[in-house]
Amino acid sequence: MSRPSNALVLFSGGQDSTTCLAWALTRFARVETIGFDYGQRHSVEMTCRRRIRDKIVGVLPQTKDRLGEDHVLDLSVLGEMSETALTRDREIELGRSGLPSTFVPGRNIVFFTFAAALAYRRQIFDLVGGMCETDYSGYPDCRDETIKSVAETLSLGMDERFHIHTPLMWLSKSESWSLAYELGGEALIELIVEETHTCYLGERGTRHVWGYGCGLCPACDLRAKGYNVYTSTL
Ligand code: ZN
Question: Is 159 within the bounds of a domain?
Answer without folding.
Answer: yes
